[in-house]
Predict the 3D structure of the following.
Amino acid sequence: MGHYLSSTQSQRREMLDALGIDSMEELYSSVPRELITKNGFELPEGKSELEVDRLMRNMAGKNTQFSAVFRGAGAYSHYIPAIVGTVVSKETFLTAYTPYQAEISQGVLQAIFEYQSMICRLTGMDVSNASVYDGASATAEAVAMCRDKRRSKVIISSAAHPEVIKTIKTYCWAAGAAVELAPSNNGATDLAALESMIDDKTACVHIQQPNYFGIIEDCERAGQIAHASGAKFIMGINPIAAAILKTPGECAADIAVGEGQPLGMPLSYGGPYLGFMAANSSMMRKLPGRIVGETVDTDGNRAYVLTLQAREQHIRREKASSNICSNQALCAMTAAVYMAAMGPEGMKNAAIQCMSKAHYLASRLEEIKMPLKYGGQFFHEFVTACPDGLDAKRLIECLGADHGILGGLPIEDNCILWCCTEMNTKEEIDRLINVLAENLAEKGGRG
């Protein structure tokens, strides 16, 4: 790409001088060194198609194919009906992007409208936008919706996903807004501490349901606490869990957000995913991005329009709370096709399987002296402690290297965050337990 950049060396030098820095390396000093190529900013020479093919195959050969997956932490392995890929891979959908000329993009608009309708039904909220980039940015955008000159303080549960917390902090740092973390107690948000933290400067409270540790939070009570002080309540949800848990609407949330990856998107090494956002009607005009609505044309036929598009680039930039003007159209359509294919009962069945298999795994782990760290109710993720003298990270590495099993995620205090979905069979769970039991016995024998 370097040979096709429009800027010359002298132009680059001029831009660096204007910024008051000496080199391109200094310009990208905030980027971790391990993410920068060995040759710095000098790209290698081009290769032929055959050379590139060989290079990519060699790189792919280094990947590990796991026979069983027991890890979640924000991205989950779920069954995806074959029809999902069949529909969304049609080139008329695959090439679709944000409808800039809405009148001639009726198919795209209808797909977005159906997606919005399903998200509203899933969350129990009044209105949904056409999606944003991912779940973390959706949450940060929801926080931005709630802030104003009078109320700018943001309270986040410390039991929310760490990457979501970091994203919110980044947004708020740029906006000069204060962020405080409500402490957790036994894996769940400490609601008494939360209540003491809220004041008349608090714009919103964010709780994740289930939280990062898999615990099911008392979101109804959290919403009451937030509203009692005049703050907004943002509820982050797992869309599969939402099929059997109380909806954000039932918990009186003002905004519901989440990561849509479980809705028909494979893990794909981290993306592309989508962030879904839904709100009650009073917050509708603050939703970033686009909202598609249904109407009729001059002949009385059903038609779809961009009912609302908060394109802050158009007007009033200085008053904008967001600069998002796009949406994950293909991912949103994937979610819509998945939800249509599964239906309410299918999603409920998937959620029940996730929960029951996770509880079976937890009971088996306790049998081999890996007890639950927290005592609250959980959905399909939970945390166990490692026995004394055994390192959680090394144990998980051994599972992958020696047995082809992707175990749970090692987290602080030498604990492991496990996950089960409908994809995990009883045989896989029992095999995992047998491997762990052998490993624990071996370590115990050495001790």
Remarks:
- The chain has three domains: 2-60, 68-77+344-446, 82-339.
- The chain has 13 helices and 16 strands.
- The CA atoms of residues 273 and 306 lie 23 Å apart.
